[in-house]
Predict the 3D structure of the following.
Amino acid sequence: MRISKKNDGPALMPGRRENQLFRKPDQAILKRWAYPLRMCHLVAEAMAARIERSKKLFRWKFFRGDFHSHTQHSDGIGTIAETAEMVKIAKLDFQFVTDHWGITQAPECRKHGLWVGQEPGTQLHHLGILGLRRAYAPQMDFLADCAELQRLGATWFVPHPTGWWPTRIYPKEAWKILEKLPSPFLMEVCNGASNVINAFDFTDASARILWDGLLRKGRKVHALGNTDAHAPHSIGIVWNGVFASRCAERDVLAAIRAGRSFLSDGPLLQTTLGRAGMGMDASAADRQNGLRITAVDSEGLRSIRVIADGRLLMEFDARNRPFWERRVALPRRVRAYVRVEATASDARRAYSNPIYLR
Ligand SMILES: [Zn+2]
Ligand SMILES: [Zn+2]
């Protein structure tokens, strides 16, 4: 087929020449780098508004925040001030800046109301460390390092336990060693590294499989969902709803160590079994009362899933309702744990922390 190289008429509407950005290269450079951050601001604002609307339907007080992010004090591209600006736009209640190799970010973080942690690497896993006032140099022996952090009274967690999207997949050895950690411990079941807008990816799917595997073996593993943001753009794409009495670092850390939180990139979620809440041990009497589930998302909920002993126990169609609440009986055959997932109509999701049954 012959294609004519000649236009049949003008290539541009009259008077539009001056609007074409490529004719103003200086402006184009400024705009094309500011534009993605501007879009991320709009997305974070929209999510904050959605959560504010959801909170009106949710009876429990919680604080929303992220335990893992980076700045130029290690390999992140953002400054502390840019991180703080995004935290404000996303209306997060708290943000930890956990740079690799130390805590030189601490003075500036304090000025901006951000909390400080660190993330050194050991031979098999990185280590998320919170509430320690000095740089921790690992012995490069993962189990010994975890024991030492425990001894120092730090709150520590296993970040991206199966690797991080899209470049790093950990060997099965890295899965296996987690079985040797003292119970309970904290582990990221969602890590947003390299993601913008949406945190969940295939490494999070495998972290969820790892989590259920450990729980089924009777380990207590409290889950976290953190951005691991290396750019201010992704601050706020996943967060934890922490049931603490006040938004002070000590109280928030005590709450996550007790498993009193859910992770989410949209919905709000609460689960109790009798008097046992998330992260707690349920007694035989608690089981008699059944599992009470409350899920909220002002954008509408698609489904509620109950997972027990590594299997999908029940699934409910939430029919796009913003509020879903039910009490369900827990079958006698469930032995180790029960947890709940809520999925919103736009596929955003929340995972409750488990209630342990032994
Ligand atoms: Zn890491
Ligand atoms: Zn990190």
